[in-house]
């Protein structure tokens, strides 16, 4: 069954101080159905090498051919495009809509 909003618990420190470990987030899976991600959007992505893992990142820049460069806030504690390269739009799970 498809749900347009999915709930996740933040694990790790790559997005601190904006999102702390243990925070909950709601991700809107329909956010990019008719639009493209923009720089500074906070998104949930599927890890390019471990597809069952969801990562929380910031769109740093859009690149040609629906590719995106994503980063965490804490560079020393973040697995992001500096490690695995740019990601394709199909790896973007959705846009962070709300956190609590």
Automatic annotation (TrEMBL):
| Gene Ontology BP, a term | signal peptide processing
What are the annotated GO cellular component locations? membrane
- Could you tell me one molecular function GO term of this UniProt entry? serine-type endopeptidase activity
Q: What top-level branch of life does the organism fall under?
A: Bacteria
Q: Note the InterPro entries from the entry.
A: LexA/Signal_pep-like_sf (IPR036286), Pept_S26A_signal_pept_1 (IPR000223), Pept_S26A_signal_pept_1_Ser-AS (IPR019756), Pept_S26A_Sod_Ni_maturase (IPR014124), Peptidase_S26 (IPR019533)
Q: Does the keyword Ribonucleoprotein apply?
A: no
- Spell out the catalytic residues: 14, 57
Identify the residues that the record assigns to the Peptidase S26 domain, covering every copy: 3-57, 62-99
Q: Which keywords fit this entry according to its UniProt record?
A: Hydrolase, Protease
CDD domains, A to Z = S26_SPase_I
NCBIfam families to which the protein is assigned, alphabetical: sod_Ni_protease
Family classification: Belongs to the peptidase S26 family.
**Which PANTHER family is this protein grouped with?**
CHLOROPLAST PROCESSING PEPTIDASE, SIGNAL PEPTIDASE I
Recorded protein name is Nickel-type superoxide dismutase maturation protease
């Amino acid at each position: 069954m498809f749900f347009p909003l999915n709930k996740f618990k933040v694990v790790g420190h790559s997005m601190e101080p904006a999102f702390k470990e243990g925070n909950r987030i709601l991700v809107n899976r329909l956010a990019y159905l008719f639009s493209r991600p923009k720089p500074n959007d906070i998104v949930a992505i599927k890890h390019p090498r471990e597809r069952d893992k969801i990562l929380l990142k910031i769109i740093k820049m859009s690149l040609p051919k629906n590719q995106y460069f994503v980063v965490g806030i804490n560079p020393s504690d973040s697995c992001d495009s500096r490690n695995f390269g740019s990601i394709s739009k199909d790896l973007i799970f959705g846009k962070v809509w709300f956190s609590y």
